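Cross-check.
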Amino acid sequence: MARAIWSGVLTFGLVTVPVQLFTATEDHTVHFHQLQRGTSDRVRYQRVNERTGKEVDFDDIVKGYDLGGGDYVIVEPDELDDIAPGKSQVIEITGFVDLDQVEPVYFDKTYYLAPKGEEYTKVYELLRAALEKENKTGIATFVMRGKQYLVALRAQEEVLVLHTLHWADEVRDPQQELPVLPDRGDAQGKELDTARQLIGALSIDWNPKDYHDTYEERVKELVDAKAKGKEIVSEEAPPQATNVLDLMEALQRSVEQTRSSKGKAPDERKAKKASARKPVRKAAAKQAKKTTGKTAPHKQASASTTARGRGVGKRELRQLSKTELYQRASDEGIPGRSKMSHDELVDALARAARRRKKTAA
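Predicted model, tokenized:
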């Protein structure tokens, strides 16, 4: 069970309810240790006095505000807590607003707010249900770990959720910060209508379980492949920017492609996704193909059957992902495939198909 990172009281009007704050999310990033190149020696960081070069114990560290010229105002940790003893224990709702009035750029982190005990659940649920019925969010401030936060409190199905917000002076003005911004009149006419059609064709119901961190998966595959001596396949480069002259054509093709994709049977879409997740071949298998110049008979038959069944024209090949192209190149025994780009794999597979067709004739 999760541990509370803060406890205090939540107030709205003259109503007060003791609450606890819990982290709502967790980090699943793949973490690496830092090592000195060529060794297995860990690189660690220490708190070192820059004048003496000696390590400093954590309890001997205080905060210092720089006045310039080497002068500092020293502040002890307890002094920061003493200047706002009440604020550090209270989440005080000062008003309620519609949630869509708060721009997403202001949102920072998300926490769950829970009642501190069974005896406080009725008052807690009263606030949660009222916020849900009114479709409102409570705006409040509180102090945690020596820092004051502006927060938005809103209702989920069973729990109150607290979002920390950026202060207004922390949000940058895009007009001042960004080098280039379009004129609002740049998008109009038939292009705008087609773009709206594309958005309509791509409209879906939000389900967070449909998405996962593919980059983390690739990092784990990289680590696993290097540990087992397997081949590593690089990802294709990002697509080139759309030429303004080709914009209308790109929009229309996108609409047609999206509608065509939605018309496919679910089993067909699942099969395509499954083929994209096939693991890479071992480096040893690649070397064996180079040595013998042949693939096993059952593999060769499979590759030929697969190629005829799926179509080998360049147009069809370009619609495949790089992972799918690489899998086909592995089945064909195409040398140098691990270093090929998406277009190079398409060309190599097309040449292999022409050679096979010529041989068969």
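Residues 187 and 193 are 9 Å apart (CA to CA). The first helix runs from residue 77 to 82. Passed to J.P. for a second look.
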